[in-house]
Every structure is written in C-alpha cells, then in structure tokens.
Amino acid sequence: MASITTILLSILLAVLVYRLVNNLIRSRRKLPPGPRQWPVIGNLPHLGPAPHQTMAALARKHGPLMHLRLGQVDVVVAASASVAAQFLKTHDANFSSRPPNSGAKHIAYNYQDLVFRPYGQRWRLLRKITSVHLFSGKALEDFRHVRQEEVAVLISALANTGSTAVNLGQLLNVCTVNALGRTMLGYRVFGDGSGKSEPRADEFKSMVVEVMVLAGVFNIGDFVPALDWLDLQGVAARMKKLHNRFDAFLTTIIEEHKANVGKGKHTDLLSTLLSLKDDAEGEDEKLTDTEIKALLLNMFTAGTDTTSSTVEWAIAELIRHPKILAKVQEELDRVVGRDRLVSELDLAQLTYLQAVMKETFRLHPSTPMSVPRMANESCEINGYHIPKGTTLLVNVWAIARDPAEWTDPLEFRPERFLPGGEKAQVDIRGNDFEVIPFGAGRRICAGMSLGVRMVQLLTATLVQAFNLGLPNGLVPEKLNMDEAYGLTLQRAAPLMVHPQPRLDQHLY
C-alpha cells in the first residue's frame, strides 16, 4: 500500500514540476500582445455577440498579431494581410490541422469529413477526390446546365409573386440547395424549387438550419475541457441528436443509390463517390460509407448557406447604390442583351459585375472568422513565440476593412478592382491576403470555384431579370445592413424585395 502511495505522489510531483517548468519557459518567451485575462475563463468575456467585430477592435489596440487565452486554450488572431500571409503562406504547413471541437466530433462523424479532418494522408486523399471529381473544371462544366436550370426556376418563382414582397434569402437558399442536390444526388432536395412544402425537403431544411444554429453557439467544453463532460448548455446532446438525424437521412440516400447501381438511373456525383469506394485500387484509396456521408454533410452545410447569404448581401448593396446597379444592368444589356438570360459562359466578359462581386466578398465575407487552425509545433511569427497547440483565427472581416490596405474601406466601391483602381490586380482566390473570403493555403475552401460561379450567376441573373424594389416605401438609404454573427455572416434582417420584371415575359 505504501509503495502505491509513493508512486502516486511521485506522479503528482512530476506533473506539478512539469507544469511549473513549462510555465517558466512560456513566461520567458515573448507571446504576442493581447488584453488582460480573467482567471480560469481568460479572454472569453471579451468576445461578445459579434467576435469578428470585437476582435477587430482589440487588434486596433493591441496590434494585428494578438494573443488571447480562451479558457485553457491559447489563441492567436491575425488581423492584417501581412500577418495572415505569415501564417497561411510562410508557415502554412505548420498550421495545416484543426483544433478539437465538439461540432466536428459529434456532428461531422468524429473528424471523418474534409473540413475538420486532421492533416495527413487521408485528408489529402479526400481533397484529391473532391478536386478531381467534384470541383474540377470538367466536373463544373458537366453540371453547368443544372445550375442554370435551377436559377431559371428561381427567376420564374420571383416573376410570379405578384405584388407580394418576398424573402429573397429564403428563395436563394432553396435555389442553391436544389442545384447542389441535383448535382450531388440526382434530384431536388426542396421539391420543385418554388418553395412549396414537401415533408422530406422540410426535414432536411430543418436539419441544415439547426447545424447553422449550433455552429454559432459557444460551447464552454471546447475551451474548458474539465467542464466538457457536464455539457452545461446541452450543446453536445443536441449535436448528437442532430447527427443521428443526418446519418439516417444520408444512409437512406446512399442505400437508394446502391440499389440502382447498373440501372442507369443516376449520373450524379454520389454515384461517382460510390464507384470510388468499390473500384479503387488498394485499400488506402477506397472511401468508406462514413467518409462519403461526411463529404455529403460538408457539401450541404458549407456549400449552400454561404452562397445564398453572399448573393443577398450583393443585392442589398446594389439596391443601396442605384448608380452602381445601373452600371451592372447596362453591362448586362450590352454584353448579353435582353432577349435571353445570362449564362455562366457570359461571366468572363462581365468585368464590372466581377468587380461588384469582389467588393461584396470583401465587405461581407461569408465566413468572417476563418475556420480555426492549430499549430503542430511551436514557431516564431514576427518575433513572437507561438506555442505548440495554439489555435489560429484569421479575422477575414477585419483584414478586408483595414484602412492600411484599403482607401475608404467601409465604402462599397467596385471601381477599386477595375483597371486603374487601387486593387486592380487583387484576386479573391487565396493568393492576395488583403481579401481572402475562401481562406488560403492548404486548407483553402475546396468548393471555391463552384461558389464563385454560383454567386456570380445568381447575382447577374437577378439584376438582369428584375428591378428589385423595397416594400412599404422604404428608401434604399435606410436599408438595414446590420450583421448577425454565426457560422455564416447573415443579415440581421432578411432582405424583403418586390421583384419587377424588366425583360420580355417569355424569358420567365
């Protein structure tokens, strides 16, 4: 008995000595500056309801490379283009994994998906599969007609609203989910696209909405692991329940596809994924059913709401700026004409529209705070020590509004991206860190090319097909542009519009 007690005391002493030495080492290494911390909870009280905004304000005081302590987790925040480039370019390999979080554990098949999976061989396989089979130029071209058909369905639905004001964001979400559903699964998820109720569609929609809600909830257990088992907010329990609903839904979809193999009924991307599962060379190249379901989950949660919310912001900005709207419509009338709807093939010629979309991505990034990354090893950034295991947050929203990078950063000014403008050569695809709505480096958004196409096509078609008025005599200057923070940067108030057709009736 005495020997066991001695062993336990020795272990306890070793742990205490290790922590003491570790803290001494940390204290001698210069961490980035940051606000003072509260006991136990650290800087959690500083975040508030809109962390992207409060962290931007803190960065103005403490600098663009800032250290926070959230509970027991070290966090560094990058709030300038140059600092972001240090993390996402120079030290990209070191920050290629994700920190643990309850959403990935309980909803995303315990890190079996593409978004949250640890960096390594399996992640590279999933990334390769999505790059080749889902988001390559050929794959996007093969399903171009699907996206254009679903946008045409949206236009028809808007043209038939009469004098009723419509929730534009809601219909945009139906359109994007249906376009993705037809591409991934072979059928519309939300019925006929008109927004009418359908039980299976309503069930799926409720699950996607709940994912967005839970993803925006601060879960104490992620930052204070000792309290994780208590699930004080009931978040983990809700996540587990939601996972079971998603799993049942996705399992049914996969089983239906398996039953139709060889019958020629499906020409969708899920069929491609299933063929890779069965026909891949070597066990290391085969997908599991769990990985396929996790990929589907990624597509429908990360690839729909982001698109619809960005288009909603774009239309709101154009309504608020009638002169800019008139320039976009003039370009569409000149390049496309008024006797047909704009297509994806026209987008490359619509220079001013592309500038409008870049400015929308700048001011209203769909993900205002990057999906977190984690330091695999300790490193030094700009002379500061970044400890191993530190969580990295890139404040995409703050970088795109940095007055050191942008003239009049709060103004909606597409001309800044045109030839002769201050940022004429800046792209949004992860190479220019002043505006990185899709992230950058190894973990850049896999669906970026699809997202850009869909956002441009939807915005162009809406502006070409309609004059969008505001209800109840609301003047454009008074349109509410407040943000609601969550997984995606939503409008605090939905955009309600009166669509007034501006083309010949047969186009609707």
TrEMBL record:
InterPro entries: Cyt_P450 (IPR001128), Cyt_P450_CS (IPR017972), Cyt_P450_E_grp-I (IPR002401), Cyt_P450_sf (IPR036396). The keyword NAD does not apply. It is an enzyme of class 1 (oxidoreductase). Its cofactor is heme. Pfam families: p450 (PF00067). PROSITE patterns: CYTOCHROME_P450 (PS00086). It is a single-pass type III membrane protein. Pathway: Secondary metabolite biosynthesis; flavonoid biosynthesis. It comes from the Eukaryota. GO terms for molecular function: flavonoid 3'-monooxygenase activity; heme binding; iron ion binding. Gene3D superfamilies: Cytochrome P450. It is found in: Endoplasmic reticulum membrane. Its EC number is 1.14.14.82. One of its GO terms (biological process) is flavonoid biosynthetic process. It catalyses: a 3'-unsubstituted flavone + reduced [NADPH--hemoprotein reductase] + O2 = a 3'-hydroxyflavone + oxidized [NADPH--hemoprotein reductase] + H2O + H(+). Transmembrane segments: none annotated. Heme binds at residue 445. GO terms for cellular component: endoplasmic reticulum membrane. Keywords: Flavonoid biosynthesis, Heme, Iron, Membrane, Metal-binding, Monooxygenase, NADP, Oxidoreductase, Transmembrane, Transmembrane helix. Catalyzes the 3'-hydroxylation of the flavonoid B-ring to the 3',4'-hydroxylated state. Convert naringenin to eriodictyol and dihydrokaempferol to dihydroquercetin. Belongs to the cytochrome P450 family. This is Flavonoid 3'-monooxygenase. It comes from Morus alba. The lineage of its organism: Eukaryota, Viridiplantae, Streptophyta, Embryophyta, Tracheophyta. The gene is F3'H.
